[in-house]
Amino acid sequence: MKSIYVNHIAKLLKVKAWQVENCVELLDDGCTIPFISRYRKERTGDLDDVAVAEVKHWADAFAEMEKRKETILGTIEEQGKLTKELKTKIEDTLSSSELEDLYLPYRPKRKTRATVAVAKGLEPLANALEGGKVSNPETEAAKYVKGEVKDAEDALQGARDIIAERLSETASVRETLRCLFRQRRVQSKVTKAGEEDPAAQKYRSYFSFSQPVAKIPAHNLLAMLRARDEGFLRVDLDTDAEKMGKKIYYDWCQVHGYPFRENGNQIKEAVDDGFKRLLEPSITGEVLREAKEKADVESIGVFGENLRQLLLAPPVGQKRVMAIDPGFRTGCKVVCLDSEGNLLEHCVIFPHPPVAKKIDAITKVSDLVEKYKTEVIAIGSGTAGRETEEFIRKVGLPDSVKIYSVSEDGASVYSASEAGREEFPLEDVTVRGAVSIGRRLMDPLAELVKIDPKSLGVGQYQHDVDQKLLKEKLDNTVESCVNSVGVNLNTASEYLLQYVSGIGPALAKAIVEYRKANGAFRSREALKKVPRLGAKAFQQCAGFLRVVGSANPLDNSAVHPEAYHIVEKMARDLKVSTGQLVGNEKLCSGIDPAKYVEGEFGLPTVNDILKELRKPGLDPREEAHEFAFADDIRDIEDLREGMELPGIVTNLTAFGAFVDIGLHENGLIHASNMGVKGMAVPSQVLKLRQQIKVRVISVDPDRGRIGLRLLA
Description:
single chain, alpha/beta, Arc Repressor Mutant, subunit A, Nucleotidyltransferase, domain 5, DNA polymerase, domain 1, 5-stranded mixed β-sheet, 5-stranded mixed β-barrel, 30 helices
C-alpha cells in the first residue's frame, strides 16, 4: 500500500504508520482480524480488534480508490489531456469528492445544454466572453448566427450554457460551495401527500423542521430521509442562493481578471444559471449524502455495540431446559431440551383464554419438569409472555427450577430459515421457534449466530443505512464475539464454526461432516485431518477452538499451538508437568515473563499466555440472573407518574434506551434522563438485557408512549 494511504490511516486512527503498515501486510497475507489482534500484538503494537477492523476498512477503501484513479488517469490520457500537474493531483488526493471533481471536466458526458452549444460551434464565443476579450457581446455573437443558431441571443445563450457548465465543473468552486453548504441548515417541509396520508403522521415532528447540517442527530436525519423517500417530506438545505450566487460571481471575476463591463451581465447570467441549475442541486445532494454517511456510521456503530452486548449476554450454560413460546388463541408451545440443546419432547398447552385449560396445562408442565429433571424454564417475552410467566410461577414447581424471560426477536426468522429446517426437518415452525428460545437462554451466542442480526430488534434505522457498511460491521462484531469467547470444537454447530477465525462456511461444513464420520476430535492437531483445512487455516483458527478432555490441557485454552513450546519450557523450568502448571495461580505468579521472550513472541504475547494459564478457557460472559416484573402492572392504563418499576433494557439507540416493564409497549429512557451528568451516550450507561429500575415520568396511552427515568 502506498505511503500516502498508510500515513493517512495512521493519522485517522491516531496510531503509528508502522503499525498500520504491518497490519496491512498481515491482512494481505490472509490473516484474520481476531488472529491479528490476539496473536500478533508485537507486529501491530497491540492494536485491538476494533482498530484492526478500522485499518482493514480503510485499506479496502483506498484499494478501491486506487483502482478508480487508474481508470480516471487512463480515460484522461486517451483524450490527450493528461498533464503532469493533473496526474500528480489525482495520484496524491485522498478525498473521493476531490478525485471526482478533478475528473469531472474530462468525464464522458451525456447530452447537455453545453454540449449542444459546443456542437453548434459556440465554444469560441464562450472563450472570448470568459476571457474578457469582447467589447460588444451582441456584435460578437452576430458572427455565429448560422445553421442552428437563430440569432445573436441564441448564440449568447449557448455561450452562457458553456460557461455555466465549466463553472459547475471547477474543482475550487465546488469545494468552496461544499464548505459553505456544510455550514447551512438541513430543512424539511411536509408535502401534499404527507398532509393527506395518515401513514405520514409518524413523521409529523419533521413537517416543519430545521437544524444545522453539522449538528443534526443521526436518527433525525435518517427519519427525514426515509420520509422523503416515501414522498411525505421535501428535504433540502437552506443555502441562501442569492448570497452564494453573488460570492461565486465575484470569485469568478477575480480569478479571470475582472472581465470588461460589457461582458459582466453575460458572465453574471451564466454564473447565476450555473449555480441554480447545476451547482446548487449537485452540491446539496453531495452534502446531504455526506451527512447521511456520517449518520450511517453513527447508527451502525450503535447497532454493532448493541449486537455485541446481545451476543455476549449471560448464558445459563448446559442445563436441562423447558422453553415456552407463549400465545393466547393458538396456545403456548412447550419444548423440553437436554443439557446439549437436543429436543426431547414438545406439546401445546392452553392456560389462557379463550381456551383456558389451566388444569390440563398445570399437569402437563409439572409432568414434563419431573420427567426430564428440568433445571430452568425459558419463556418468550412476546405476546402472552407476561401472562405465561405468571402462570408458570403459580404451578408449584420445585424452588430449584429457575424461570427466565427471553427475548423472542428473531425466533420466527430462525424457525423459517434454512438452518431451522436443516436442524428440525420434521418439526413445524412453532416447535423450531420454541427450541430457539430455549437454546438462546443456554448460550445466546451459539444460537443467535444462526439469525440475521437485522432481525434481532436491536438496530436503529438498520434498513436505511449503507447495507455494505452495515454487513461489514455486523460480520466483524459477530466474528469478534465468537472468537473472544472461544468455541468447543466437538459441540459447536456449523453456523457457529463458520464465524471462527479462518474457517468460513465451507470449512465449517467439512469440520462437522468429519466429526460425524470420525467421532469427537481428541486434539487440536487432529483438525489437520479435515479435508481442505490447510496450514494457513489451522494457524488462523486453532487458538480459538477448545478441545475439552484433550490429552494436552493447552488444547482447552486460548494459548495458540505455535506457543505451546513456551509453556512447556516454563513447566520444565519449574520442574512440573504442563498439566500441573495450567490453572495453578501460585506457580504462574512466580514466572518472570521477560525470561521467555524470544523471536516473534514478545512480552505482550508471553503476558497473554500467563494470563490464560491462570484461568484457562475462562468465559468472559457474566452469569444469568432471574427477573420478575411488577405484579400490579398489567396495562398502560395502570401506570402513574412517579411509579418505580423493574425493567429490562431491550434496545439502545443514540437518543435513549427502550425498556420492557412488563407491558406490550416498551418505555423510553431519553438520553437526558439517564441520570449521569454529562453522559449522553446510552451505551456507555446501560447494556442490553440489563436489569434496571426506572421511574415513570410520562404516560401517553393514546400514542402508546411511556417516558422513563433511570434510577441509580
